[in-house]
């Protein structure tokens, strides 16, 4: 379970950064490319985000995280590069 959570955490972080890149880089300059990429990137990020949160609850029980650690893991999913931090610090 932990290995799968690591993979999902990394993929969720990448999809989050791709979503930001699409909004900040492509939208102002290439509106058609932005529109074509928005749905696939947004949908994959949404699925990965839900998977990250669900797996966090499962891994919490497995690793016996306290409330503070679990809160950090959940809040990290809302911050850019946050899931990379969690993967490095809490999932090794």
Q: What topology emerges from the helices and strands here?
A:
Layout: H1 2-29, H2 31-63, H3 67-76, H4 82-89
Helix pairs in contact: 1-2, 1-4, 3-4
Shape: elongated
| Helix residue percentage | over 70%
Specify Rg, calculated over alpha carbons: 15 Å
Number of individual domains: 1
Low-confidence regions: none
Order of helices and strands: HHHH
First CA to last CA: what distance? 13 Å
Estimated share of beta-strand residues? under 5%
What would the average pLDDT be, to the nearest integer? 93
The total of helices stands at 4
For the biggest sheet, the summary is: none
Could you characterize the architecture of this molecule?
About 85% of the residues lie in helices and about 0% in strands. It has about 90 residues and is an all-alpha fold. It has one domain (about 1-85). The radius of gyration is 15 Å and the shape is elongated. About 20% of the residues are buried.
Quick description:
The chain is mainly alpha-helical and 92 residues long.
How would you describe this structure in keywords?
single chain; 92 residues; mainly alpha; 4 helices; elongated
């Amino acid at each position: 379970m932990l290995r799968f959570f690591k993979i999902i955490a990394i993929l969720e972080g990448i999809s989050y950064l791709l979503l930001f890149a699409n909004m900040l880089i492509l939208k102002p300059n290439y509106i058609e490319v932005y529109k074509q990429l928005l749905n696939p990137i947004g949908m994959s990020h949404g699925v990965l985000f839900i998977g990250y949160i669900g797996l966090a609850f499962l891994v919490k029980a497995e690793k016996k995280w306290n409330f503070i650690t679990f809160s950090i893991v959940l809040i990290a999913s809302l911050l850019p590069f946050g899931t990379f931090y969690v993967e490095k610090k809490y999932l090794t």
